[in-house]
Every structure is written in structure tokens, then in C-alpha cells.
Design brief:
The complex is a heterodimer of chains A (about 400) and B (about 150). Chain A is mainly beta and about 400 residues long. In chain A, about 10% of the residues lie in helices and about 55% in strands. Chain A has helices at about 1-20, 160-165, 195-200, 330-335, and strands at about 30, 35-50, 65-80, 80-95, 95-115, 120-130, 165-175, 180-190, 210, 215-225, 230-245, 255-265, 270-285, 295-310, 310-320, 345-360, 360-370, 390-400. In chain A, strand 1 (about 30) and strand 2 (about 35-50) form a beta hairpin. Chain A is globular, with a radius of gyration of 21 Å. The two termini of chain A are about 35 Å apart. The model of chain A is unreliable at about 1-5 and about 20-30 (pLDDT under 50). By secondary structure, chain B is of the alpha/beta class. Chain B folds into two domains: about 1-30; about 30-150, 3-Layer(aba) Sandwich (D-Maltodextrin-Binding Protein, domain 2). Chain B is about 45% helix and about 15% strand. Chain B contains five helices and seven strands; from the N terminus they run H-E-E-H-E-H-H-E-H-E-E-E. The model of chain B is unreliable at about 10-25 (pLDDT under 50). Classes of the chains: A mainly beta (about 400), B alpha/beta (about 150). The interface of A and B includes residues 73, 114, 123, 225 and 227 of A.
């Protein structure tokens, strides 16, 4: 019965995707109540092929189609100071995301203060986490610069944890002829109980699960009046607690994760240059069965986009991750644990092409030349002995929105 | 030979500015975008930074409390491009990115797209709090021109 339902659901998704891809002219954005209520959505389907290792499913020398993103949202602005909005989301990405439908955000936004200077207010409910330039809309292919975001900062294996928090967001925006300032503070509880988060932090799925403690994200962005230059700084204080069962033998414990991200962007008419740099401080504490362990990782990427013509974009990016900056190439880690040194770093050269068939439908192709496996999930790569240091990945993606 | 060449260059240099200035005179009356609002709004001018925030779908309220309703042409419409670059001083792709980012995180809504200047003028004239743009020579008595300070 369950398998049957699952099959039907998969069929339905394929149908929706095909219908959406074939007749973009038929499906249009829906606006009701004089445009005060808007309904929008997106469907993306990816194809992944890797020379070694697995990404988003079984892709090693195989063509994987286990990469799908679906979302529908509504927004209602009944009053100039109030907006209500929610989005349902289904992600399928190999073993780490099973396509389950969940609430991505559901919030009430109240602009308490506004004037010629700018505005300030509060959002209540499940809000998107402000994290670097891309996190807030990372599920929407149209808002990403590439098929996958630079993995050194936007890990897809902990995507659920990064997406949104249940709590409150305070915001202040200032508009002036000297530029625009945006300041956001989110305080709340992110989603930490999924298997993928657990495998990322503990190495494998255990009988217990993680719960988040109160977490804070603070982000400031400055942009020049013309938006040519944008600079951002994000600081996160994330705490997740492991709730064990007697069978796990771990007896609970806590992980503190405190990344600090610097972001910069330059936008010209034909090209954009973006770079982000992160220090990622992690601490494993109070696990009776594990040694106390603290380390700082570094992540950075530099990305250039060239708009050849309005419909076609070319992307080149170099993305680097070191899990531990005191052991950048994992040599000490290999001696200590016997696991490969290359699982502690990753360098990814990406070449990408985007073609917009029309404003609602786009196609993308991407080539990744990667050394190291630090951002791969053990869920798709369960056997460390099978992992390869050097690997290539080809990805294709079609995305439709309304 | 050299003389012929120099004369040629001089002629070209003389002619080119003349031609382009003729084109500019034509453009002056036709293709300059002006910002228009609903006639019921009693707001004569607006700082450019606020105009930009309105078209980025971040500012939702006029000083008198009326809800802002933004109308635009398609992204690839020449007037939209001109309006974005000359009046707002941003590229159309930057506006599109700002709208997308807000719509898909629950923070904002898309502006309403219109297909022709007739539609733009009639929607602006009949929607309280409406703001949009047309070519200077298309302005009629049913809409107000908004000055930028």
C-alpha cells in the first residue's frame, strides 16, 4: 500500500513536471483579489553523472535522476504593512532528501516602522535563514547562479538544517543616496531532526536524533545605490543537541556550529563577480562516548558570470573547502582515523551554461572537476574505501516556474 | 593621399556628432521614460532612493498611507530597460533578482506586468496608489507625473 502510494506520488510529480515543461504558456502566475493574493511555484528536475563517487543518488558511472525540487507558495498583502506568506516544498536529492512535502516557510510580516528613511519590522513563524547571498532562496533554481550552489558554504547534505527556523526575525532597511543597508536577526529553532543532519555530524544514522536549541543568525548587507557593489556579513550561532536512546550508546551530546561568512559582489551589465569566505567553527561537546573536539574549517569561492546575451549565461567558479584549517589536507586526520585524507578537503572547478527558453522555463548544464570528497554525504557514499580523490561530475537541469 | 585620408577623417568626425544629435532630438520627445502615478495621489515628488525601493518591491506605502501598486513592462521591453538604467540606475536583471529573492522567501510580491502603454495608462489611472512609467509623449491627463528629487 505504502509502496503503491509512493509510486503514485512519483508518477504525479513526473506528470506535473512534464506538463509544466511542455506548456509554459498555459500556466501563468495566478493573481487574485486585485493582485493582493499571488500564487507562485516551481519545478526543477536534474540529471547527474559522476566519474567516481556519488552525488544526489547513485551516479557513479550512471545517470542519476534522483534530484528534483518542487514548491508552491502564496502571499497575501491585505494592508501595506502586513504580508502573510507560506511555501510548501518537496526536495528529492539522493539519499539525503526523500522528497517529503514540508512547510518551507509560513510567516506573518509586519512592517512596524516606515518612512523616507527606510523601514523596520518583525516576521513571525517559520522564516528563511539569512545566510550568505544565496541561502534564503536556495531551493529555487531560478535564483541560484548554478545548478548546485558552491558546496563549501551551501552544503546540500545539511540543507534541511540551513533552510528555515521557527521563531522570529527582526529587520531594518535603510534607503539613501549613499546606498542601502539591510540588517536581519533571526532567533529560532532550525530543523535538525532529519537523518542527513545526523549522518553529517555523527558519521552514520543512530537510533537517537538531533534537536535544535535556540539559534541566532545575524546578517548585515550594504549595497551601493545602483547595486553594483554588495557586501555582506553573516554570523550564526547554532546549537543542536543529540537526544539519544539507550541503544545508541552515545548518551547524548551537543554540537555547536558557529560560521562567520563574508560576502562580496560586483554587478556590471554583462557580468557579475561574486566571492564568499567563511570560517566555520564547530565544537562537539558532552558526548560521553566521543572525545571533546573543536575545529575550524575554512570555505571560499570566487565566481564569475558572463551574460553572453539576455538569454544565455556562462559561469566559471572555483570553490574550496577545508574541514579543519589546522589540518588542511587531512594528513593528521588520516593518521589518526585511518580514513582518507582527501575526505577532509574539496576543490571544485565549475563551468556552467544557462539558457532561458522563456521567462518561465530555463535549461542548465554544468561540469564540475573536483579533487577531494569533503562535501559528499556518507548517505550516498557509505563505503569510505570506495571513494576516489579525483572525480568529475556532469549535471543537467530543467526548471519551470509560474 | 595623406590629405585625402585626413579630410575623410575630418568629414566623418564632423558628420557623426551631427547625426547623433539629430537622433537625440527625436528621442527627447519620444523615448524618455517618466514616472506616473494614480491621479488621486497627492504626492508631487519622491527621493530616487525611495523610488528604487518601490520598484524593488521593498517599499509598500506612500507617505499618505496608501498601498503602493507597481506596474512594469516585460523585462526585455526597451522602455523597461531604459527606465531601469536611466531612472532607477540599475539593470533589469537586478530588479528581477530582487523580486525573485523576495517572492520565494515570503517577503514580497511581484509587480504587475502590462503589455502596452494603453494598458499601463488605464491601470495607473484606475488603481489607487498605482505607480508606473510611460514615454514622455504618452502622458495623458488621467495620470500624474511624479518628480524625482
Amino acid at each position: 500500500m505504502c509502496a503503491c502510494l509512493k509510486y503514485a506520488r512519483q508518477r504525479l510529480r513526473t506528470l506535473v513536471f512534464l506538463a509544466a515543461a511542455c506548456c509554459p504558456a498555459i500556466v501563468q502566475a495566478v493573481e487574485l483579489m486585485d493582485g493582493k493574493l499571488q500564487l507562485h511555484g516551481f519545478v526543477s528536475q536534474g540529471i547527474v553523472f559522476t566519474s567516481n563517487n556519488n552525488f544526489f543518488g547513485k551516479t557513479d558511472d550512471k545517470v542519476g535522476t534522483d534530484f528534483r525540487e518542487l514548491g508552491v507558495n502564496f502571499s497575501l498583502r491585505p494592508h501595506p504593512d502586513i504580508q502573510v506568506a507560506a511555501q510548501l516544498l518537496s526536495l528529492k536529492a539522493g539519499e539525503s532528501n526523500d522528497g517529503e512535502v514540508r512547510i518551507d516557510y509560513a510567516l506573518l510580516d509586519w512592517t512596524a516602522l516606515s518612512g523616507e528613511w527606510g523601514r523596520g519590522g518583525v516576521r513571525l513563524g517559520r522564516v528563511k535563514n539569512p545566510f550568505g547571498f544565496y541561502n534564503k532562496t536556495r531551493d529555487v533554481a531560478f535564483t541560484r547562479p548554478s545548478i548546485i550552489l558552491p558546496q563549501s558554504i551551501y552544503f546540500d547534505r545539511t540543507r534541511n538544517l540551513a533552510l528555515s527556523s521557527d521563531g522570529v526575525e527582526f529587520y531594518i532597511e535603510r534607503y539613501s543616496e549613499n546606498g542601502n543597508w539591510f540588517l536581519n536577526l533571526v532567533s529560532g529553532w532550525p530543523q535538525a531532526s532529519d537523518r542527513s543532519t545526523e549522518v553529517t555530524f555523527l558519521g552514520r544514522n543512530q537510533p537517537g536524533h538531533f534537536n535544535s536549541n535556540l539559534t541566532h543568525l545575524l546578517q548585515g548587507i550594504y549595497e551601493t545605490v545602483d547595486g553594483r557593489y554588495r557586501f555582506g556579513l553573516t554570523s550564526v550561532w547554532l546549537e543542536i543537541e543529540y537526544d539519544s536512546t539507550p541503544a545508541s550508546g552515545l548518551d547524548g551530546g551537543r554540537v555547536d556550529f558557529e560560521p562567520l561568512i563574508f560576502s562580496a559582489q560586483y554587478n556590471a551589465e554583462k557580468w557579475s563577480l561574486t566571492g564568499e569566505y567563511a570560517f566555520r567553527h564547530s565544537k562537539f561537546d558532552h558526548f560521553p562516548a566521543l572525545p571533546r573536539n573543536a575545529f575550524t574549517g575554512v570555505s571560499y569561492y570566487l565566481q564569475g558570470i558572463y551574460r553572453i546575451q539576455p538569454k544565455t549565461e556562462l559561469l566559471l567558479r572555483y570553490d574550496v573547502l577545508h574541514t579543519d584549517r589546522d589540518d588542511k589536507y587531512g594528513r593528521a586526520f588520516e593518521e589518526r582515523s585511518g580514513r582518507p585524507a582527501f575526505s577532509r578537503y574539496a576543490k571544485d572547478w565549475t563551468l556552467g551554461l544557462k539558457y532561458s527558453v522563456n521567462p518561465n522555463f530555463m535549461l542548465r548544464a554544468e561540469y564540475h572537476r573536483v579533487t577531494g570528497t569533503a562535501w559528499l554525504t556518507p548517505m550516498d557514499n557509505p563505503d569510505p574505501a570506495q571513494q576516489q580523490r579525483r572525480w568529475d561530475m556532469i549535471m543537467l537541469l530543467g526548471s519551470f516556474r509560474f | 593621399m595623406k590629405f585625402v585620408l585626413l579630410t575623410g577623417i575630418a568629414l566623418v568626425m564632423l558628420l557623426v556628432p551631427v547625426q547623433s544629435s539629430i537622433a537625440t532630438v527625436d528621442n527627447l520627445t519620444e523615448a524618455i521614460p517618466v514616472v506616473i502615478t494614480a491621479p488621486s495621489l497627492n504626492i508631487p515628488d519622491i527621493p530616487r532612493s525611495n523610488l528604487r525601493a518601490m520598484f524593488a518591491m521593498r517599499k509598500h506605502k506612500w507617505p499618505d498611507g496608501t498601498m503602493v501598486k507597481v506596474f512594469v513592462y516585460r523585462d526585455d521591453d526597451p522602455l523597461h530597460e531604459k527606465f531601469s538604467k536611466q531612472i532607477l540606475n540599475v539593470f533589469p536583471y537586478q530588479l528581477r533578482q530582487a523580486w525573485d529573492r523576495q517572492v520565494y522567501s515570503g517577503l514580497g510580491q511581484y509587480p504587475e506586468e502590462v503589455a502596452s502603454s494603453e494598458e499601463m495608462l488605464s491601470r495607473i489611472a484606475n488603481t489607487p496608489g498605482a505607480i508606473g512609467y510611460v514615454k514622455m509623449n504618452e502622458v495623458n491627463k488621467n495620470v500624474r507625473v511624479l518628480e524625482i528629487r
